Amino acid sequence: MDTLVAMELLEKFKQGDQWLYSNSEMATKFLTKDSPDSYLDMIAFTNKTLYPIFGNLESAILEGTTQWQKTFGMSAEDFFPNVCNTEEAKLRFMGAMHCNSLYASYAAAKAIDLSAYRSCCDLGGAVGTLAYALCQFYPEMKITVCDLEPAVSLAHLFRPSVEACPNQANVSFAVGDFFKPETIPKADLYVLSHVLHDWSEDKVDLILSNVYKCLPSGGGLLICERILNEDKRGPLPSLIFSLLMLVSTGGKERSASEYKHLLEKHGFVDVQAKSVYFTQDAIFCRKM
Question: Which of UniProt's keywords are assigned here (predicted)?
Fold first, then answer.
């Protein structure tokens, strides 16, 4: 218990002859179930999924493949339907994704001036964490979150209060797939947040090609990812996350120049990268 006090997770106080313990302010905020800032779902997902699969990092490096089969005895395509096979399990997974991006979303939303855009589509935006952040800074912007049905069906459970997000009515949800351009809602600004690092090069090319086709002339694309230093010697958290992508998705993190090359290959111009938060950076570009 005293170790937890030293870690600032508990507070220790004396009542009469007894020493008593209570949650610290930090623990109450991040480690209690009812807190809107709770990290419990992300901690549970990390314990059950990410830690075990990271244990096969050596095999991933030697083989250059994801490690779902070796870790869990099934492919990634089979793993999530098996693990997220109840509404409660789906809710926990979406909760993990929500809390993992909550603070970074607010930092990304104000990192680059997006006031020129009136309609936005957050592709793969899950339960709308970034969309609700965007509508706080751009009250005139109408934002559509486009994702697969399991995410959209649970999104209402993560809607912030009107007091916390007065413009929440500007956010709507649509079932769609960024691999199928005919299902992508029209917008003059698209967002890809923590999407590109999940996929192989050919899938990344397909996603960017679809976005470019859907954008009108002058439209913008905001990408939220971790950016590596040009010499690939840091930042350390981004390098570790890139290894996690290797073992779990077959994707990777990239440097700013790699994003510039990738985006210009697909016809985007005015590529700019900006560091905005310790877990997330922003890359912005336009279609001519």
Answer: Methyltransferase, S-adenosyl-L-methionine, Transferase
Nearest to 171 by CA among 208, 138, 149: 138
Nearest 5 degrees, angle CA 259-CA 264-CA 266?
105
CA distances from 62 to 34, 115, 247 (A): 43, 46, 11
Name the phi and psi angles at 282, rounded to 5: -130, 140
Pairwise CA distance, residues 276 & 36, whole Å: 22
Q: What is the length of the chain?
A: 288
Clarify whether 197 is annotated catalytic: yes
At 228 the three-state DSSP class reads: strand
Catalytic residue among 98, 156, 194, 197: 197
Q: What is the pLDDT of residue 197?
A: 96
Rounded Cα gap, residues 264 and 260, in angstroms: 6
Beta strands in 16-73 (DSSP E): 18-23
pLDDT-based confidence at residue 246 (cuts at 50, 70, 90): very high
DSSP string, 167-216: TGGGEEEEE--TT-GGGSPP-SEEEEES-GGGS-HHHHHHHHHHHHHHSP
Cα–Cα distance for residue pair 165/273, rounded to 1 Å: 28
* Contact call for residues 223 and 258 (beta carbons, < 8 A): no
198 Rama class: left (phi>0) / alpha (psi -120 to 50) / beta: alpha
Tokens representing 136 are 């706080």
> What mean pLDDT do residues 78-89 have?
80
Outline where DSSP puts E strands in the chain. Answer: 10-15, 18-23, 119-123, 142-147, 171-175, 189-193, 220-225, 227-228, 254-255, 268-277, 280-287
Q: Cα–Cα–Cα angle for 17, 19, 23, nearest 5°?
A: 150
Is residue 278 predicted with pLDDT exceeding 90?
Answer: no
Q: What is the pTM of this model?
A: 0.92
CB-based contact 274:281 (threshold 8 Å): yes
H/E run at residue 79: helix 76-83
